[in-house]
Amino acid sequence: MDNFAFMVHPLTAKDFSRKFSFTKNWPDRLVEGVMRYIPPFRVADISGVASDFNHVQGWFVGCPLTSRQMTDLPESYVLNKIIKAGKVAEKLGAKILGLGAFTSVVGDAGVTISQNLNIAVTSGNSYTVATALEGTRQAAKLLGKQMERANVVVLGATGSIGAACAQILSNEVKYLTLVARDEKKLEKVAAQIYRSSGLAVKITANTKAALRLADIIIAVTSAVDVIIEPEDLKVGAIVCDVARPRNVSKQVSELRDDVLVIEGGIVEVPGDVDFKLNFGFPPQTAYACMAETMILALEKRYENFSLGRDLTVKQIQTIESLAQKHGFKMAGFRSFDRPVTNEEIEKIKKNIAARVGSKEVIC
Fold first, then answer.
1. Which of 50, 218, 222, 259 could connect to 271 by a Cys-Cys bridge, CB 3.0–4.6 Å?
2. Are 37 and 324 in contact (CB under 8 A)?
3. For residue 359, what pLDDT is reported?
4. CA 229, CA 226: separation in Å to the nearest integer?
5. Using CA atoms, how far apart are residues 127 and 290, in angstroms rounded to an integer?
6. Residues 6+ positions from 278 with CB-CB distance below 8 Å
7. Could you tell me the residue ranges of all domains in the chain?
8. Which of 273, 305, 341 lies closest to 114 in space, CA to CA?
Protein backbone atom coordinates (compact mmCIF):
# COMPACT_ATOMS: atom_id res chain seq x y z
CA MET A 1 0.00 0.00 0.00
CA ASP A 2 1.10 3.58 -0.63
CA ASN A 3 1.93 5.34 2.59
CA PHE A 4 3.44 8.39 4.26
CA ALA A 5 4.55 9.81 7.59
CA PHE A 6 4.16 13.25 9.08
CA MET A 7 6.42 14.73 11.73
CA VAL A 8 4.86 16.54 14.68
CA HIS A 9 6.33 18.21 17.74
CA PRO A 10 4.96 20.01 20.82
CA LEU A 11 4.66 23.73 20.13
CA THR A 12 5.06 24.46 23.84
CA ALA A 13 6.03 22.56 26.98
CA LYS A 14 2.34 22.52 27.96
CA ASP A 15 1.54 20.56 24.78
CA PHE A 16 3.98 17.90 25.93
CA SER A 17 2.46 17.89 29.42
CA ARG A 18 -1.00 17.22 27.97
CA LYS A 19 0.38 14.04 26.44
CA PHE A 20 2.45 13.07 29.49
CA SER A 21 0.34 14.20 32.44
CA PHE A 22 2.95 13.43 35.10
CA THR A 23 4.80 16.59 33.96
CA LYS A 24 1.79 18.93 34.11
CA ASN A 25 2.93 20.74 37.26
CA TRP A 26 6.55 20.99 36.22
CA PRO A 27 8.10 24.32 35.16
CA ASP A 28 8.39 24.68 31.37
CA ARG A 29 12.20 24.69 31.47
CA LEU A 30 12.23 21.41 33.40
CA VAL A 31 9.86 19.81 30.90
CA GLU A 32 12.02 21.01 28.01
CA GLY A 33 15.12 19.71 29.77
CA VAL A 34 13.61 16.25 30.04
CA MET A 35 12.45 16.32 26.42
CA ARG A 36 16.03 16.68 25.21
CA TYR A 37 16.71 13.12 26.40
CA ILE A 38 13.61 11.54 24.87
CA PRO A 39 14.25 9.91 21.47
CA PRO A 40 11.85 10.46 18.55
CA PHE A 41 8.96 8.01 18.52
CA ARG A 42 5.87 6.76 16.70
CA VAL A 43 2.92 8.84 17.90
CA ALA A 44 -0.13 7.43 16.11
CA ASP A 45 -1.31 5.53 13.03
CA ILE A 46 -3.35 7.21 10.29
CA SER A 47 -5.95 5.27 8.33
CA GLY A 48 -8.78 5.85 5.88
CA VAL A 49 -7.25 8.52 3.62
CA ALA A 50 -8.86 7.71 0.26
CA SER A 51 -9.73 9.37 -3.04
CA ASP A 52 -11.35 8.05 -6.22
CA PHE A 53 -7.86 7.11 -7.43
CA ASN A 54 -6.03 5.60 -4.47
CA HIS A 55 -6.01 5.04 -0.72
CA VAL A 56 -3.08 5.41 1.67
CA GLN A 57 -2.11 4.86 5.28
CA GLY A 58 0.37 6.76 7.40
CA TRP A 59 1.94 7.56 10.74
CA PHE A 60 2.58 10.55 12.93
CA VAL A 61 6.15 10.53 14.23
CA GLY A 62 7.15 12.76 17.11
CA CYS A 63 10.22 14.94 17.44
CA PRO A 64 10.27 15.89 21.15
CA LEU A 65 11.42 19.50 21.02
CA THR A 66 9.29 22.63 21.48
CA SER A 67 9.22 25.54 19.05
CA ARG A 68 11.38 27.57 21.40
CA GLN A 69 13.95 24.79 21.66
CA MET A 70 14.10 24.53 17.89
CA THR A 71 15.01 28.20 17.64
CA ASP A 72 17.23 28.44 20.73
CA LEU A 73 19.24 25.21 20.66
CA PRO A 74 22.23 24.75 18.31
CA GLU A 75 21.02 24.18 14.76
CA SER A 76 23.13 21.05 14.33
CA TYR A 77 21.57 19.47 17.43
CA VAL A 78 18.02 20.22 16.29
CA LEU A 79 18.64 18.99 12.74
CA ASN A 80 20.14 15.77 14.09
CA LYS A 81 17.06 15.12 16.23
CA ILE A 82 14.73 15.82 13.29
CA ILE A 83 16.75 13.43 11.11
CA LYS A 84 16.47 10.76 13.81
CA ALA A 85 12.69 11.26 13.76
CA GLY A 86 12.85 10.82 9.99
CA LYS A 87 14.66 7.52 10.51
CA VAL A 88 11.70 6.38 12.63
CA ALA A 89 9.47 7.09 9.62
CA GLU A 90 11.82 5.11 7.40
CA LYS A 91 11.71 2.08 9.72
CA LEU A 92 7.90 2.21 9.73
CA GLY A 93 8.02 1.88 5.95
CA ALA A 94 6.96 5.40 4.97
CA LYS A 95 7.75 6.39 1.39
CA ILE A 96 7.42 10.15 1.95
CA LEU A 97 7.77 12.31 5.07
CA GLY A 98 6.07 15.61 5.75
CA LEU A 99 7.74 18.13 8.05
CA GLY A 100 5.34 19.78 10.47
CA ALA A 101 5.54 23.17 12.21
CA PHE A 102 9.11 24.20 13.09
CA THR A 103 10.70 21.02 11.71
CA SER A 104 10.23 22.58 8.25
CA VAL A 105 11.81 25.88 9.32
CA VAL A 106 15.09 24.85 10.94
CA GLY A 107 18.26 25.31 8.90
CA ASP A 108 17.73 25.21 5.15
CA ALA A 109 14.01 24.35 5.29
CA GLY A 110 14.23 20.62 4.81
CA VAL A 111 17.08 20.29 2.31
CA THR A 112 19.66 18.88 4.75
CA ILE A 113 17.01 16.62 6.28
CA SER A 114 16.15 15.16 2.87
CA GLN A 115 19.85 14.58 2.12
CA ASN A 116 20.16 12.45 5.24
CA LEU A 117 17.10 10.26 4.66
CA ASN A 118 16.34 7.52 2.14
CA ILE A 119 12.74 8.61 1.60
CA ALA A 120 11.17 11.65 -0.05
CA VAL A 121 10.56 14.76 2.07
CA THR A 122 8.22 17.74 1.80
CA SER A 123 7.55 20.74 4.02
CA GLY A 124 3.94 20.99 2.85
CA ASN A 125 4.45 24.69 2.24
CA SER A 126 3.13 24.73 -1.34
CA TYR A 127 -0.37 23.61 -0.36
CA THR A 128 -0.21 25.83 2.72
CA VAL A 129 0.29 28.83 0.42
CA ALA A 130 -2.54 27.77 -1.89
CA THR A 131 -5.07 27.29 0.91
CA ALA A 132 -4.04 30.42 2.81
CA LEU A 133 -4.56 32.57 -0.27
CA GLU A 134 -7.86 30.90 -1.10
CA GLY A 135 -9.10 31.44 2.44
CA THR A 136 -8.04 35.08 2.35
CA ARG A 137 -9.83 35.64 -0.95
CA GLN A 138 -13.02 34.07 0.41
CA ALA A 139 -12.86 36.12 3.62
CA ALA A 140 -12.37 39.34 1.66
CA LYS A 141 -15.37 38.53 -0.51
CA LEU A 142 -17.56 37.85 2.53
CA LEU A 143 -16.65 41.19 4.11
CA GLY A 144 -17.13 43.03 0.83
CA LYS A 145 -13.46 43.93 0.32
CA GLN A 146 -11.93 44.09 -3.14
CA MET A 147 -8.50 42.49 -2.97
CA GLU A 148 -7.15 44.57 -5.84
CA ARG A 149 -7.94 47.80 -3.99
CA ALA A 150 -7.05 46.71 -0.46
CA ASN A 151 -3.85 47.47 1.41
CA VAL A 152 -2.43 43.95 1.76
CA VAL A 153 0.39 43.13 4.18
CA VAL A 154 2.45 39.94 4.25
CA LEU A 155 4.00 39.49 7.69
CA GLY A 156 7.06 37.25 7.49
CA ALA A 157 7.61 37.95 3.79
CA THR A 158 11.18 36.67 3.62
CA GLY A 159 10.25 33.11 4.59
CA SER A 160 9.39 30.53 1.95
CA ILE A 161 5.62 30.74 2.56
CA GLY A 162 5.56 34.52 2.90
CA ALA A 163 7.64 35.12 -0.23
CA ALA A 164 5.48 32.76 -2.27
CA CYS A 165 2.28 34.41 -1.00
CA ALA A 166 3.69 37.81 -1.92
CA GLN A 167 4.72 36.62 -5.38
CA ILE A 168 1.22 35.36 -6.19
CA LEU A 169 -0.53 38.35 -4.63
CA SER A 170 1.58 40.74 -6.71
CA ASN A 171 -0.50 39.68 -9.71
CA GLU A 172 -3.79 40.26 -7.86
CA VAL A 173 -3.40 43.45 -5.81
CA LYS A 174 -2.15 47.00 -6.32
CA TYR A 175 -1.03 47.84 -2.78
CA LEU A 176 1.27 45.28 -1.20
CA THR A 177 3.55 45.74 1.81
CA LEU A 178 6.15 43.17 2.81
CA VAL A 179 7.22 42.99 6.46
CA ALA A 180 10.17 41.16 8.02
CA ARG A 181 13.08 41.91 10.34
CA ASP A 182 15.80 41.72 7.66
CA GLU A 183 15.40 44.63 5.24
CA LYS A 184 18.14 43.37 2.92
CA LYS A 185 16.25 40.12 2.43
CA LEU A 186 13.06 42.15 1.94
CA GLU A 187 14.75 44.16 -0.81
CA LYS A 188 15.66 40.93 -2.58
CA VAL A 189 12.07 39.63 -2.44
CA ALA A 190 10.75 43.01 -3.62
CA ALA A 191 13.18 43.04 -6.55
CA GLN A 192 12.10 39.54 -7.61
CA ILE A 193 8.46 40.60 -7.50
CA TYR A 194 9.13 43.71 -9.56
CA ARG A 195 10.95 41.68 -12.22
CA SER A 196 8.17 39.09 -12.50
CA SER A 197 5.02 41.21 -12.11
CA GLY A 198 6.06 44.83 -12.45
CA LEU A 199 4.54 45.71 -9.07
CA ALA A 200 6.59 48.02 -6.87
CA VAL A 201 5.87 46.79 -3.34
CA LYS A 202 6.57 48.57 -0.08
CA ILE A 203 8.95 46.99 2.43
CA THR A 204 9.41 47.67 6.12
CA ALA A 205 10.77 46.19 9.33
CA ASN A 206 8.29 48.26 11.34
CA THR A 207 5.64 45.64 12.00
CA LYS A 208 3.31 47.75 14.12
CA ALA A 209 3.18 50.63 11.65
CA ALA A 210 2.41 48.31 8.74
CA LEU A 211 -0.32 46.47 10.65
CA ARG A 212 -2.21 49.62 11.59
CA LEU A 213 -2.64 50.54 7.91
CA ALA A 214 -3.52 47.06 6.66
CA ASP A 215 -6.90 45.98 5.31
CA ILE A 216 -5.76 42.38 4.80
CA ILE A 217 -2.89 40.65 6.62
CA ILE A 218 -1.34 37.27 5.91
CA ALA A 219 0.76 36.32 8.94
CA VAL A 220 3.37 33.63 8.33
CA THR A 221 6.30 34.38 10.62
CA SER A 222 8.27 31.77 12.57
CA ALA A 223 8.08 33.80 15.79
CA VAL A 224 7.48 31.81 18.96
CA ASP A 225 5.53 34.66 20.60
CA VAL A 226 2.45 36.55 19.40
CA ILE A 227 3.04 39.60 17.22
CA ILE A 228 -0.42 40.98 16.49
CA GLU A 229 -2.27 42.56 19.43
CA PRO A 230 -5.80 44.07 19.52
CA GLU A 231 -4.56 47.65 19.23
CA ASP A 232 -2.58 46.85 16.06
CA LEU A 233 -5.58 46.36 13.78
CA LYS A 234 -7.79 48.87 12.01
CA VAL A 235 -11.56 48.50 11.90
CA GLY A 236 -12.55 45.86 9.34
CA ALA A 237 -9.15 44.20 9.08
CA ILE A 238 -8.91 40.59 7.92
CA VAL A 239 -6.07 38.46 9.27
CA CYS A 240 -5.17 35.05 7.90
CA ASP A 241 -2.90 33.53 10.54
CA VAL A 242 -0.92 30.69 8.98
CA ALA A 243 1.79 30.57 11.65
CA ARG A 244 2.10 27.90 14.33
CA PRO A 245 2.51 29.01 17.09
CA ARG A 246 -0.01 31.71 16.23
CA ASN A 247 1.09 35.22 15.32
CA VAL A 248 -2.23 36.67 16.57
CA SER A 249 -2.95 37.18 20.26
CA LYS A 250 -6.02 35.44 21.67
CA GLN A 251 -7.01 38.86 23.04
CA VAL A 252 -7.90 39.95 19.49
CA SER A 253 -10.87 37.57 19.52
CA GLU A 254 -11.87 38.78 22.99
CA LEU A 255 -11.55 42.54 22.45
CA ARG A 256 -12.08 43.14 18.73
CA ASP A 257 -15.50 42.25 17.33
CA ASP A 258 -14.85 44.40 14.26
CA VAL A 259 -12.08 42.32 12.68
CA LEU A 260 -12.00 38.81 11.21
CA VAL A 261 -9.17 36.44 12.14
CA ILE A 262 -9.04 33.11 10.34
CA GLU A 263 -6.64 30.22 10.63
CA GLY A 264 -4.89 29.59 7.33
CA GLY A 265 -4.15 26.26 5.75
CA ILE A 266 -6.94 23.99 7.07
CA VAL A 267 -8.56 21.44 4.74
CA GLU A 268 -10.98 18.53 4.62
CA VAL A 269 -9.31 15.20 3.89
CA PRO A 270 -11.20 12.71 1.67
CA GLY A 271 -12.14 9.27 2.93
CA ASP A 272 -13.13 7.79 6.27
CA VAL A 273 -10.08 9.28 7.95
CA ASP A 274 -8.95 8.37 11.45
CA PHE A 275 -5.90 10.31 12.66
CA LYS A 276 -5.92 8.77 16.17
CA LEU A 277 -4.43 12.05 17.35
CA ASN A 278 -6.33 15.09 18.57
CA PHE A 279 -4.77 18.30 17.29
CA GLY A 280 -7.85 20.43 17.89
CA PHE A 281 -9.67 20.00 14.58
CA PRO A 282 -12.98 18.36 13.67
CA PRO A 283 -12.84 14.81 12.25
CA GLN A 284 -11.41 14.47 8.72
CA THR A 285 -9.75 17.88 8.97
CA ALA A 286 -6.02 18.62 8.85
CA TYR A 287 -3.43 21.28 8.25
CA ALA A 288 -2.60 21.85 4.59
CA CYS A 289 1.03 20.85 5.21
CA MET A 290 -0.20 17.45 6.42
CA ALA A 291 -2.54 17.23 3.46
CA GLU A 292 0.26 17.91 0.97
CA THR A 293 2.08 14.81 2.20
CA MET A 294 -1.10 12.75 1.79
CA ILE A 295 -1.75 14.18 -1.67
CA LEU A 296 1.72 13.25 -2.90
CA ALA A 297 1.30 9.72 -1.49
CA LEU A 298 -2.12 9.34 -3.15
CA GLU A 299 -0.56 10.48 -6.43
CA LYS A 300 2.42 8.12 -5.92
CA ARG A 301 4.75 11.09 -6.31
CA TYR A 302 7.49 9.98 -3.96
CA GLU A 303 9.82 12.87 -4.62
CA ASN A 304 11.19 15.79 -2.64
CA PHE A 305 8.69 18.66 -2.82
CA SER A 306 8.39 22.13 -1.26
CA LEU A 307 11.91 22.15 0.16
CA GLY A 308 14.22 25.13 0.64
CA ARG A 309 13.44 28.82 0.89
CA ASP A 310 12.24 29.38 -2.67
CA LEU A 311 8.84 27.93 -3.50
CA THR A 312 7.77 28.31 -7.10
CA VAL A 313 4.37 29.33 -8.42
CA LYS A 314 4.46 26.16 -10.54
CA GLN A 315 4.81 23.98 -7.41
CA ILE A 316 1.87 25.71 -5.80
CA GLN A 317 -0.28 25.34 -8.90
CA THR A 318 0.71 21.67 -9.21
CA ILE A 319 -0.23 20.71 -5.66
CA GLU A 320 -3.44 22.75 -5.88
CA SER A 321 -4.44 20.81 -9.00
CA LEU A 322 -3.59 17.46 -7.39
CA ALA A 323 -5.58 18.41 -4.29
CA GLN A 324 -8.65 19.05 -6.41
CA LYS A 325 -8.13 15.76 -8.26
CA HIS A 326 -8.08 13.76 -5.02
CA GLY A 327 -10.94 15.62 -3.32
CA PHE A 328 -9.19 17.85 -0.80
CA LYS A 329 -10.94 21.16 -0.16
CA MET A 330 -11.12 24.14 2.18
CA ALA A 331 -12.59 23.23 5.55
CA GLY A 332 -14.46 26.48 6.18
CA PHE A 333 -13.29 29.28 8.42
CA ARG A 334 -11.85 28.61 11.85
CA SER A 335 -10.57 31.10 14.38
CA PHE A 336 -8.68 30.21 17.55
CA ASP A 337 -9.59 26.52 17.28
CA ARG A 338 -13.31 26.94 16.65
CA PRO A 339 -15.53 27.34 13.57
CA VAL A 340 -16.56 30.82 12.43
CA THR A 341 -20.31 30.81 11.75
CA ASN A 342 -22.23 32.83 9.19
CA GLU A 343 -23.94 34.61 12.08
CA GLU A 344 -20.56 35.72 13.43
CA ILE A 345 -19.54 37.00 10.00
CA GLU A 346 -22.73 39.05 9.79
CA LYS A 347 -22.16 40.44 13.29
CA ILE A 348 -18.62 41.50 12.37
CA LYS A 349 -19.93 43.20 9.23
CA LYS A 350 -22.51 45.14 11.27
CA ASN A 351 -19.89 46.20 13.81
CA ILE A 352 -17.60 47.39 11.03
CA ALA A 353 -20.37 49.39 9.41
CA ALA A 354 -21.34 50.97 12.73
CA ARG A 355 -17.79 51.99 13.63
CA VAL A 356 -16.86 53.23 10.20
CA GLY A 357 -20.10 55.20 10.11
CA SER A 358 -19.42 56.76 13.47
CA LYS A 359 -15.72 57.26 12.58
CA GLU A 360 -14.72 55.35 15.70
CA VAL A 361 -10.96 54.98 15.92
CA ILE A 362 -9.27 51.93 17.37
CA CYS A 363 -5.89 52.81 18.83
1. 50
2. no
3. 53
4. 8
5. 9
6. none
7. 2-126+267-330, 135-265+333-357
8. 305
pLDDT in tens, 244-296: 788 999 999 999 999 999 988 789 999 999 999 887 788 899 999 999 999 99
> Do the Cβ atoms of 97 and 123 come closer than 8 Å?
no
Please state which CATH class domain 135-265+333-357 belongs to: alpha beta
21 pLDDT band, cuts 50/70/90, is confident
Of 73, 59, 64, 66, nearest to 12 by C-alpha is 66
Sheet holding 266-268, edge to edge: 285-287, 266-268, 329-330
Contacts of 322 (CB under 8 A, 6+ apart): 295, 296, 298, 299, 301
Amino acid at 254: E
Of 237, 231, 236, the closest CA to residue 254 belongs to 231
Taking the C-alpha atoms of residue 194 and residue 78, their distance in angstroms, rounded to an integer, is: 36
pTM: 0.88
Predicted pLDDT at 225: 86
Tens digits of residue pLDDT in 214-247: 999 999 998 888 999 999 999 999 999 988 788 9
